[in-house]
C-alpha cells in the first residue's frame, strides 16, 4: 500500500525525531500516503501508515480525521483550499468563491466533472497579508483576482504541477 518512494520520504521525516518517537511523523506520513492514493485516505491507507510507523491504528485515525487537510473520499486532482476567514472575507473572498463555483460549475465540496478540481472553504491559512488567498497542494496563491484565478486554473488544466 505504501510505495518504496513514499517509505523513503516518510523515513526522512522519522529521522527528524528522537529514536522511538517515529509516531511524531504521522502528519507528514499521512500527507505522503494521501498524495499517492488519489489524494484521499481510506481506512486501509490510514492503517498502513500506522503499521509503518508502528503506532496504534487509532492514533493515525485520530490525526487523519481531526485535520481538514486529509480527505476521506475522492476529491479530484487539485483541491483549491480557499480561505474565507476575516482578512480574506474583507478582501473579497466570498466573491471569489462564487466566481470559482461558477467558473468550475461546482459548489464547494464538489468535484468537477473532469475530476481535476474541488473547492473547499477553509479557515485562516496564516497568509492574511496576502488576502484573499487560496492553497493548492503546497502552494499558496495570494492577492487573488479573477484574472489571476483564470491563469492559475488554465496552467493547472494544461498540466502544471
Ligand atoms: S484570513 Fe485568510 S489567510 Fe488569514
Automatic annotation (TrEMBL):
Keywords: 2Fe-2S, Iron, Iron-sulfur, Metal-binding, NAD, Oxidoreductase, Translocase. Binds 1 [2Fe-2S] cluster. GO terms for molecular function: 2 iron, 2 sulfur cluster binding; active transmembrane transporter activity; inorganic cation transmembrane transporter activity; metal ion binding; monoatomic cation transmembrane transporter activity; NADH dehydrogenase activity. This is NADH-quinone oxidoreductase subunit E. Belongs to the complex I 24 kDa subunit family. NCBIfam families: nuoE_fam. It comes from endosymbiont of Bathymodiolus septemdierum str. Myojin knoll. The gene is nuoE. SUPFAM superfamilies: Thioredoxin-like.
Amino acid at each position: 500500500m505504501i510505495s518504496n518512494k513514499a517509505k523513503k520520504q516518510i523515513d526522512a521525516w522519522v529521522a527528524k525525531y528522537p529514536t522511538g518517537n517515529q509516531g511524531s511523523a504521522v502528519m507528514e506520513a499521512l500527507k505522503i500516503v494521501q498524495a499517492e492514493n488519489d489524494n484521499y485516505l481510506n481506512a486501509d491507507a490510514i492503517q498502513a501508515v500506522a503499521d509503518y510507523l508502528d503506532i496504534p491504528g487509532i492514533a493515525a485515525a485520530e490525526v487523519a480525521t481531526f485535520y481538514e487537510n486529509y480527505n476521506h473520499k475522492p476529491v479530484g486532482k487539485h483541491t483549491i483550499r480557499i480561505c474565507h476567514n476575516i482578512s480574506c472575507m474583507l478582501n473579497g473572498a466570498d466573491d471569489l468563491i462564487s466566481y470559482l463555483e461558477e467558473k468550475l460549475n461546482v459548489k464547494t465540496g464538489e468535484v468537477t466533472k473532469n475530476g481535476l478540481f474541488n473547492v473547499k472553504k477553509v479557515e485562516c491559512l496564516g497568509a492574511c497579508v496576502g488576502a484573499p488567498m487560496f492553497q493548492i497542494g503546497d502552494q499558496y496563491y495570494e492577492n487573488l483576482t479573477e484574472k489571476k484565478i483564470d491563469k492559475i486554473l488554465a496552467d493547472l488544466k494544461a498540466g502544471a504541477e
